[in-house]
Amino acid sequence: MDRNIIHLDLDAFFVAVERRNNAKLNGKPLIIGGSSRRGVVAACSYETRRFGVHSAMPMYLALQLCPDAMVISGDMESYSQSSHEVTEIIAEAAPMFEKASIDEFYIDASGMDRYFGAFKWAVALREKIMRNSGLPISLGMSVNKLVSKVATGEFKPNASKHILSGEEKQFLAPLGVEKIPMIGKQTASFLYDMGVRTVSTLRDMPLKFLVSAFGKNGISLWNKANGVDESPVVPYAEQKSISTESTFDQDTIDVKRLKSILIAMVEKVAFTLRDQKKLTSCVTVKIRYANFDTETKQIHIPYTSSDHVLLRVVTELFNRLYNRRMLIRLVGVRLSGLVHGNHQINLFDDTAESINLYEAIDRIKHRHGVEKLIRATTLDVSRRVRMDMNMFKGNLR
């Protein structure tokens, strides 16, 4: 039995939320992101994309390309709430779904053809989402996640496309290699230098040659070019979390030291979050006093994986939580409400320089270890903070 995998993608999601909330913005070229010259584009309308504007582009360049664009600072709280609304609609109807990011979903509708037709059901669900949320959404359906995602991207906005079983190669063949998910600019540039510009050309290359050129990734490239993707739809669970805590050898009331330890914790969990391409929407701080009384405080926040955002939230929670002025034996940080997504999903407080800095820091930590690059304020406690990285995996659920 062929699989039926549905991909749903909210069209220009941030822009759509702004237009739903303010109809006067309809039809106007919009850019959402930092308004300063050093800011970056978080999202943009289709009207601006025609001029070459895209997300993560420096704001000054975007305004050079489209000087008539209206810049909006953005409201991540509103976007997060809208994402939850759509998630709830899908959860009520879908037998099994995966929330791939704040605006992207997969549904495994295999077996539905026995009853009323998987694509017919998917179209009805799409119409329900648009009717109940007031947001436009596109869908693609095929035998796997790869082809469904590409189909959505090719035919959106306002699309409903079914790639029938057996037509995967024919559909992918004329597309540029950069249209294949996970082929980034560097890989695409390398393929271009080899004379490989279309999926059909990539598909016809000998597998041995691709392996010699790209290593194990060569096998993945060949499979994708041939429309092969066996990855499952991973059931969505709101309670997934990453957490860590530290118990002290001696109870302490040294607030400066406690905050330094919390900073070190945030740096590590935020790096793990970005490494796993996830975002958090809920932060919890935990303290245990010397008499073993344990207290926690949590707050829901717009999706993020940024150190500076999480540090601010954790510090505020600790200041609100620690009010007894008693000795403390344990502190902990927990990130929950996780979804898949890249750091670029929250750019409103970022600049191009800060984004590049995060990417550079993460590369260094990958190469030399997470302990090798830390904030100066944590130097005096970094060796005392024990956070087993296997704990992160154990607490991801």
Can you put this structure into words, describing what you see?
A five-stranded mixed beta sheet has the order 5-6-1-7-8. Strands 9, 10, 11, 12 and 13 form a five-stranded antiparallel beta sheet that branches. 41% of the residues lie in helices and 21% in strands. The chain is an alpha+beta fold and 397 residues long. α6 (145-155) links the parallel β7 and β8 (160-162). The chain contains 15 helices and 13 strands. The chain has helices at residues 13-21, 46-49, 59-65, 76-93, 118-133, 145-155, 168-172, 185-193, 199-204, 207-214, 216-225, 255-275, 307-321, 352-368, 389-394; strands spanning 5-10, 30-33, 41-44, 70-72, 97-101, 104-108, 137-142, 160-162, 241-252, 278-289, 294-304, 328-336, 339-340. It folds into three domains: 1-163, Alpha-Beta Plaits, CATH 3.30.70.270; 170-225, 5' to 3' exonuclease, C-terminal subdomain (DNA polymerase, domain 1), CATH 1.10.150.20; 241-394, DNA polymerase, Y-family, little finger domain (Dna Ligase, domain 1). α4 runs antiparallel to α5 (118-133), α10 packs across α11 and α12 (255-275) packs antiparallel against α13 (307-321).
